[in-house]
Design goal:
366 residues; alpha/beta; TIM Barrel; 2 domains; 28% helix
């Protein structure tokens, strides 16, 4: 099989490849942005699920990690990470309470609440140790998924405090920034929502020490907002969504799926990287199920479990399609899902393989 000029040799396909030079630049750039704007960086580890990448982020200046689940927190805590925010409206039952109490033995733990029922469950299940957990009230800043209205944050915070919880501030996820032309407006909505929520907490006598938010698309527009903590995730790798949103350029794509052309039937190019490798996410506005890093005009137009069908953008009378057996670098639409489907990441500098990193928190969904 003939590799692309920039891909490593000696790898089976499909496989996920991380360009270490690009990864390092991405991590450094976000750390510098946080430092220059005076905010804490708490990157979301659900994107990479990888111990080695988390260590690089902390070494570059991140103050702690964000995760989505208790089991993700457990994976990173077992490797010595001791400041973790589970940014999810947990429902704490007896089993989760036992696991959270174990985490508290070695971790400064922060969790989110967004309902009276959720807050009461945390307090009831954890008992007196609940005071050692930092709690943030989740605010809806326009994404309309979870979170209270900004003006109602104080009432929930007051109730949580009376139940025995240690309320430290507010957080939001401006997920609606993942839409063309929206990041600037969404950053403004986030700023207004968090300002109102912070004032709502002050109105009940609780100082919001933590005002947390930010998404990879919206962060560059968040200057002057009340944020003092940001939680981007995708920035470490980039993906096809970020390329199409204009959040990153091709020189900031750190992860690709190395794939082999297995067919040129019916005028298409078919790769061996289907939905079980790339994931099947496709936003309504996306131009395909993924892009090819070295062929900007090509789009993945269909996915099966083990096939990716690529529409090739040829000039009239020309056939620039790669041959059967050639290899290409695929940029997945949503890199978080892609990584969660893999056991390991192959780490390269140029065409040299320098390491292999386990996707340690793969499948850590509970």
């Amino acid at each position: 099989m003939r590799p692309t000029s920039d891909s490593p040799t000696g790898l089976n396909t499909p496989t996920l490849v991380v360009d270490l030079d690009v990864l390092d630049r991405n991590i450094s750039a976000m750390a510098k942005h946080a430092d220059s704007t005076g905010v804490r960086l708490r990157p979301h580890a659900k994107t990479h699920k990888c111990i080695e990448i988390a260590r690089l982020q902390i070494a570059a200046g991140a103050r702690g990690l964000t995760v989505a689940t208790v089991s993700e927190a457990e994976v990173f805590a077992a490797e010595g990470f001791d400041d973790i925010f589970i940014a999810y409206p947990l429902w704490v039952d007896q089993d989760k309470a036992r696991r959270l109490l174990t985490l508290l033995e070695n971790v400064q733990l922060t969790i989110g609440v967004e309902s009276p029922e959720g807050a009461h469950a945390v307090a009831a299940q954890l008992g007196p140790p609940a005071e050692r957990v930092q709690v943030l009230v989740e605010v809806d800043s326009g994404h309309h998924r979870t979170g209270v209205l900004p003006d109602n944050a104080g009432a929930l915070a007051d109730m949580a405090g009376q139940a025995g919880l240690n309320v430290q501030g507010v957080f939001t996820f401006p997920g609606h920034s993942y839409s063309p032309g929206s990041p600037r407006d969404v950053a403004e909505q986030e700023s207004a929502a968090l300002s109102a929520a912070a004032d709502s907490l002050r109105g009940v006598g609780i100082e919001p020490n933590v005002v947390s938010g930010g998404s990879t698309p919206s962060i560059k527009f968040s200057g002057g907002s009340p944020l003092n903590e940001i939680r981007p995730g995708v920035y470490v790798f980039g993906d096809a969504q970020q390329l199409e949103l204009g959040t990153c350029g091709t020189d900031e794509i750190a992860l690709t799926a190395l794939a082999t052309v297995v067919s040129r039937a019916h005028g298409n190019v078919v790769l061996d990287s289907g939905s079980k490798v790339l994931g099947a996410d496709r936003a309504d506005w996306a131009s395909g199920y993924g892009l090819l890093l070295d062929h900007p005009g090509a789009r993945i137009t269909a996915l099966s479990e083990h096939h990716a069908t690529v529409k090739w953008d040829d000039s009239p009378g020309a056939d620039t399609r790669p041959a059967i057996g050639d290899r290409v670098r695929v940029v997945p639409n949503h890199v978080c899902n892609t990584v969660n489907l893999a056991d390991e990441l192959v780490v390269v500098r140029g065409r040299e393989i320098v390491d292999r990193w386990s996707v340690a928190a793969r499948g850590a969904n509970t």
